[in-house]
């Protein structure tokens, strides 16, 4: 419920300029009186409140579906600009780190991949169709067979359903799917 309210607040923030334009246009058409202002204000709040709530519900459902497929935790934190999750490889046999690196470099969404030693890989990931990307890094823990993924979103992302939030989480779900990693339930 907290995530749905957070999505709704984000949707209202994005749609409020449209609501103001509709309000002013209605007042210009009908003439400015206090009764017209009250009627236009109530109409705009009801209409845009409903539209933004539906928009937020769709974004919430889309994020929920993504988190289930990736096996990641689903909370209000999915809208954060920085996502850090501990994931486990599906196949922890010999050479699993190299297979994970190979999957990352073979992905059409990853670019500027640079290895920082044997235990860490830095990269950029394109979560959507546009040229925007998120910064990321993979850190391998060979003893436990886990990968710590840290993703940070830049500015100007449209995010989930245009909410301007959640881009890093969407990218995290995509990285987990592409690299065949699953959430550990810890982080």
Assembly form of the protein: single chain
User: Level of helix content?
Assistant: 40-55%
How far apart are the termini?
20 Å
- Identify the strand order in the major beta sheet: 2-3-4-5-1-6
Largest sheet: 6 strands, antiparallel
Could you give the order of the helices and strands? HHEHEEEEHE
State the helix count.
4
Estimate the mean pLDDT confidence: 86
Strand portion: 15-25%
Q: What ranges have pLDDT less than 50 throughout 5 or more consecutive residues? A: none
Tally of extended strands?
6
- Report the C-alpha radius of gyration, rounded: 21 Å
Shape by Cα distribution: elongated
Q: What structural class is derived from the secondary structure elements?
A: alpha+beta
Report what the structure shows.
The protein has four helices and six strands; from the N terminus they run ααβαββββαβ. The two termini are 20 Å apart. Helices cover 48% and strands 21% of the residues. With 187 residues, the chain is of the alpha+beta class. It has helices at residues 2-30, 34-70, 96-106, 167-178; strands spanning 82-89, 110-115, 120-125, 134-141, 146-153, 181-183. Helix 1 (2-30) packs antiparallel against helix 2 (34-70) and helix 2 (34-70) packs parallel to helix 4. The longest helix has 37 residues, at 34-70. The chain has a six-stranded antiparallel beta sheet with strand order 2-3-4-5-1-6, covered by helices on one side.
């Amino acid at each position: 419920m907290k995530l749905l309210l957070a999505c709704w607040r984000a949707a209202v923030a994005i749609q409020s300029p449209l609501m103001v334009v509709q309000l002013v246009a209605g007042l210009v058409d009908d003439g400015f009186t206090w009764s017209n202002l009250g009627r236009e204000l109530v109409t705009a709040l009801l209409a845009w409140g409903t539209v933004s709530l539906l928009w937020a519900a769709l974004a919430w459902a889309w994020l929920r579906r993504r988190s289930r497929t990736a096996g990641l935790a689903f909370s209000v934190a999915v809208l954060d600009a920085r996502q850090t999750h501990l994931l486990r490889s599906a196949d922890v046999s010999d050479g699993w780190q190299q297979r994970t690196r190979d999957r990352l470099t073979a992905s059409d969404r990853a670019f500027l991949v640079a290895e920082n030693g044997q235990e860490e890989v830095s990269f950029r990931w394109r979560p959507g169709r546009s040229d925007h990307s998120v910064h990321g890094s993979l850190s391998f823990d060979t003893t436990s067979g886990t990968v710590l993924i840290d993703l940070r979103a830049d500015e100007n992302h449209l995010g989930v359903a245009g909410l301007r939030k959640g881009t890093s989480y969407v990218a995290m779900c995509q990285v987990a799917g592409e690299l065949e990693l699953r959430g550990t339930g810890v982080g």
